[in-house]
């Protein structure tokens, strides 16, 4: 957080010293006597606008810890700001009080951490800085406090830890099966040819499961690495859908499933990476095959949507199956990594729990959106929508 804070502090320090100078002139260079004088009333409006343009909660206090200004984000985290009163009237947080008291010499940065319990529990990191008085007679130096909400960062690091734990767990299970069978083959089943054949088949299946998981983990990390690089090429959703259907037609027909593809009659061009989009659509079609109705039907449709006056034209690609559908409580979580309605059923079908997470990342990189509509007993439709070029 420091570079961001340093830039903000530099920016504000210039503004604050000129405001402090103006305050000195307005006061006829007389000593500032505390909150009653409210010397920030005019120039303070500008400071308030600057504070509000900061991306983090920020407060300005005088040398007596009287709160002079606070931005709207500060109000969000601290509640009502009692301007013109001692900071303790706004918050009794001991870490914040200590940081203001320790702000020290001009230019010194007092870093601190605090936990707020109300209105919701949050962990924040902050820095309190004192600015030099603008003139010799200026005694009421100004303290700037900038806070940064760490809750989002904490949630991200929790997600990372959970992800590593989940991935390790997913790999450990087939590995344990393999190790067990290797021991059995080397020991009790040494001379049993029939058992060996059976065990080798199971081992091959577990090795394939590990390969699928590693392939999906690599695919996920590849799309994550490119998440902030907008695609530079043009892709046609008609061709994307045609390629995905072509690849999966043999899998669908071996399960007796009819896979129907309906392109848009015109070109369906978006700014996109053809191969990544094919991967996303394949994941959706493959899911429709795995979780759809045996001997059912799947349709892949490319269409326009939302082409109303004043709206940007958009294109969408939807994959619909007539399977058992998904209960509504699961729908919002389906694109989370390793989230599955039934882990055992997904594993039985060769799933890794990463397919939809990969789709979501690819769609996000393409400035698109994913929408899932499902009715239990009727089927599911996964729709990807993108701005057209
Ligand atoms: P998996 O590798 O388990 O298929 P995904 O991320 O692709 O992982 O999908 C997550 C879960 O969403 C699946 O385990 C399944 O429970 C559910 N799901 C996905 N697509 C469908 C579908 N077309 N019909 C019913 N359930 C689905």
- Percent of residues in helices: 40-55%
How big a fraction of the residues is strand? 15-25%
Taking the sheet with the most strands, its summary is: 5 strands, antiparallel
Kindly report the average pLDDT value.
86
Ends: how far apart?
Answer: 37 Å
Structural class: alpha+beta
Bound molecules: adenosine-5'-diphosphate
Shape, per Cα inertia axes: extended
Strand order of the largest sheet: 2-1-5-4-3
Low-confidence stretches: 17-42
- SSE topology string: HHEEHHEEEHHEHEEHEEHHEE
- By DSSP, the count of extended strands is 12
Structural write-up:
Helices cover 44% and strands 20% of the residues. The protein contains 10 helices and 12 strands. It has helices at residues 2-26, 43-53, 72-78, 94-101, 151-186, 193-225, 237-254, 274-291, 343-348, 355-365, and strands at residues 58-61, 67-70, 109-116, 122-130, 143-149, 234-236, 258-262, 269-271, 297-305, 314-321, 369-375, 379-387. It has a 5-stranded antiparallel sheet with strand order 2-1-5-4-3. A 5-stranded mixed sheet has the order 7-9-10-12-11, covered by helices on one side. The chain starts with a helix and ends with a strand. The relative contact order is 0.08. Mean pLDDT is 86; it is low at 17-42.
């Amino acid at each position: 957080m420091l570079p961001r804070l340093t830039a903000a502090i530099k920016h504000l320090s210039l503004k604050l010293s000129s405001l402090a100078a103006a305050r000195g002139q307005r006061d006829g260079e007389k000593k500032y006597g505390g909150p009653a004088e409210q010397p920030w009333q005019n120039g303070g409006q500008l400071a308030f606008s600057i504070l509000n343009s900061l991306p983090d909660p920020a407060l300005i206090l005088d040398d007596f810890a009287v709160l002079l200004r606070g931005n709207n984000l500060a109000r969000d985290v601290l509640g009502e700001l009692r301007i013109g009163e001692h900071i303790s009237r706004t918050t009794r947080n001991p870490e914040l009080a200590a940081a203001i008291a320790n702000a020290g010499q001009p230019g010194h940065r007092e870093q601190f951490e605090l936990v707020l319990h109300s209105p919701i529990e949050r962990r924040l990191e902050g820095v309190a800085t004192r600015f030099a008085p603008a003139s010799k007679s200026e005694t009421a130096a100004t303290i700037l406090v900038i806070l940064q909400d760490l809750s989002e960062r904490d949630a991200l690091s929790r997600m990372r830890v959970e992800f590593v734990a989940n991935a390790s767990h997913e790999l450990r299970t087939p590995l344990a099966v393999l190790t067990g069978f290797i021991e059995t083959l080397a020991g009790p089943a040494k001379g049993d040819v029939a058992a060996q054949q059976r065990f080798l088949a199971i081992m091959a299946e577990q090795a394939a499961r590990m390969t699928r998981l590693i392939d999906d983990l690599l695919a996920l990390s590849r799309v994550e690495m490119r998440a902030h690089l907008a695609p530079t090429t043009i892709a046609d959703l008609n061709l994307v859908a045609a390629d995905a259907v072509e690849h999966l037609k043999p899998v669908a027909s071996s399960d007796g499933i009819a896979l129907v593809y309906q392109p848009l009659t015109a070109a369906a061009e978006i700014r996109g990476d053809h191969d990544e989009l094919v991967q996303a659509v394949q994941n959706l079609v493959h899911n429709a095959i795995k979780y759809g109705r045996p001997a059912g039907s799947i349709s892949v449709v490319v269409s326009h949507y939302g082409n109303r006056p004043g709206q940007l034209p958009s294109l969408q690609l939807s994959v619909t199956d007539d399977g058992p559908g998904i209960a509504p409580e699961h729908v919002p979580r389906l694109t989370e990594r390793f989230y599955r309605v039934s882990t055992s059923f997904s594993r039985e079908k060769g799933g890794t729990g990463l397919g939809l997470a990969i789709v979501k990342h690819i769609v996000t990189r393409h400035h698109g959106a994913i929408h899932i509509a499902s009715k239990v007993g009727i089927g599911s439709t996964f729709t990807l929508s993108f701005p057209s070029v």
